[in-house]
Write a structure and sequence with these properties.
221 residues; 8-stranded antiparallel sheet; 5-stranded antiparallel sheet
């Protein structure tokens, strides 16, 4: 009995340790060049078009309301060149300055939430995988997520969500599907690069401030 209790306590501690010990940091948008797109976890082999902090402009939840996940910093993700895979932990994600957003972020931390991007050979597009407790959840949800470059320099991306059956009809690859997605007809949005290596896109920053104000949140890195 004591062993069972000890195992339960240890499991509970492991389960909630990210929530208990990870700290959410408030980040000032006006100092963006100092903290955004400045990581080195992605290494030098990830093409520069995919590096930086991207504002998830238009990202929405299934009910149509704005998603609390408003940014991804790929320089804080780990790139595995052999498999052309970019693994993005929760600490690479930016959250809206709302109490509900912070609550959602902490729940995802407890669930060990993370993303992976699986690139094609040309790095023109990638299929996205989402993990909870190390288990891929999109397949179980019957969903396919794709992302592709809209501009050659990577300043603008396009991310689309599909039901698995619909994805197979639209195209065989992420690039095909994103290119065939009709604007405002599919579940797509357009991440835009805010900053990379000290360079800031002032137009995107202006849009972020208009939507969310001057403060964003991120788990400590």
């Amino acid at each position: 009995m004591q062993l069972a209790i000890a195992i339960f306590v240890a499991f509970t501690a492991w389960l909630f340790s990210p929530v208990l010990f990870a700290r959410m940091h408030a980040l000032d948008v006006d100092t963006l060049s100092m903290w955004a797109g400045t990581g080195h976890a992605c290494g030098d082999e990830l093409p520069k078009e995919w590096r930086g902090l991207f504002f998830m402009s238009g990202n929405r939840q299934p009910d149509g309301s704005p998603s609390p996940l408003i940014g991804m910093d790929t320089t804080l993700c780990t790139f595995h060149a052999r498999g052309r895979t970019l693994a993005c932990p929760l600490s690479s994600m930016l959250w809206a300055p709302r109490e509900a957003s912070i609550t959602t972020a902490r729940k995802l931390a407890a669930a060990r939430f993370s993303y992976e991007l699986h690139f094609d050979v040309r790095f023109a597009a990638a299929r996205v995988t989402a993990y909870v407790f190390g288990v891929s959840v999109l397949d179980q949800m019957g969903m396919v997520w794709d992302i592709a470059k809209v501009s050659g320099d990577g300043q603008t991306l396009r991310r689309c969500s599909w039901a698995t059956e619909a994805a197979s009809v639209v195209g065989e690859t992420p690039l095909e599907r994103v290119r065939r997605a009709r604007r405002n007809k599919e579940s797509c949005f357009s991440p835009r690069r805010m900053a990379y290596a000290g360079r800031v896109n002032k137009g995107v920053v202006k849009d972020v401030k208009k939507a969310w104000g001057n403060t964003l949140f991120r788990f400590g890195v």
